[in-house]
Amino acid sequence: MLRIWGRTNSINVQKVMWAVGELDLAHERLDAGGAFGGLDGDAYGRLNPNRRIPVLEDGETVVWESNAIVRYLAARYGVGTLWAEDPALRSVADRWMDWQVTTLLPPLHPIFWGLVRTPGPERDMAAIDAAAKAIQPLWQILDEHLSKSRFIAGDAFSMGDIPLGCAFWRYANLDVERPSLPNVQLWYAELKKREAYRRHVMLPVT
Ligand SMILES: N[C@@H](CCC(=O)N[C@@H](CS)C(=O)NCC(=O)O)C(=O)O
User: Fold this and answer.
1) In angstroms, rounded to a whole number, what is the distance separating the alpha carbons of residues 175 and 195?
2) For the segment 151-205, what is each residue's pLDDT rounded down to a tens digit?
3) Does 33 contact ligand 1 (Cβ within 6 A)?
4) Domain-by-domain residue ranges, the chain?
5) CATH, domain 2-77, list 3.40.30.10, 3.30.465.10, 3.40.50.11810, 3.10.100.10
6) Domains 2-77 and 87-200 share a fold
7) Sheet containing 55-58: order of strands
8) Do residues 167 and 105 make contact, with C-beta atoms less than 8 angstroms apart?
9) In whole angstroms, what is the distance from residue 66 CA to residue 43 CA?
């Protein structure tokens, strides 16, 4: 049975749980991080020297870094579904997974952290507003991509949809001005039909 370490309101844990749900894998999830703590001990440090969530244990195999975990689950349990066998198609999923972390997250993080995890009087509204402005053209890049593709990598749902689907849920639930994103909205409507997305991602943004 798989073991996943991490609290449910972490976007990175949500990626893993969504993949587990799509693949219908037997698992246990242990609350860790945030108010649950549990990351400081020696045993956790041996699992992940960064002392971050999520961590996946699959027998003797231990994986950290959320997108690496999603890729591992897809490659091991989702060949032909989450994991496209064609390397060229898989590279489309891969590049958008990397884009979520390297390009989209830098402005998304300060908006989320500022509006959700920072008490009102301590908020740096100038920084939040700047990030909210900076993220708009990035979502428009994704919108342009999704004008040609039903899902992130072609006509079928794949691992490529997971990081960005988690990020968009968060963005859609933040009190910021958003640009018109008609193709993203069509894709988002598809995601909302998926039971695992509803169960593991569509949670209160806290
Ligand atoms: N790049 C890492 C980031 C891991 C990370 O920063 N996780 C956060 C939660 S989203 C964490 O562990 N925070 C400390 C805590 O929850 O106590 C990944 O994608 O897994």
Assistant:
1) 26
2) 999 999 999 999 999 999 999 999 999 999 999 999 999 999 999 999 999 999 9
3) yes
4) 2-77, 87-200
5) 3.40.30.10
6) no
7) 27-30, 2-5, 55-58, 61-64
8) yes
9) 20
Residue-wise pLDDT tens digits, 83-135: 999 999 999 999 999 999 999 999 999 999 999 999 999 999 999 999 999 99
Q: Is the beta carbon of 48 within 6 A of some atom in ligand 1?
A: no
* pTM for this prediction: 0.98
Residue nearest to atom 2 of ligand 1 (CA): 65
Q: Residue 191 has what pLDDT?
A: 98
* Fold held by 87-200: Glutathione S-transferase Yfyf (Class Pi); Chain A, domain 2 (1.20.1050)
**Per-residue confidence at 25, pLDDT binned at 50, 70, 90?**
very high
Ligand 1 center from residue 54 Cα (angstroms): 7
The answer to whether the bond into 54 is cis (omega within 30° of 0) is yes
Residue 69, ligand 1, Cβ within 6 A: no
Probe residue for ligand 1, chosen from 5, 8, 9, 12 as the CB with the greatest number of ligand atoms within 8 Å: 12
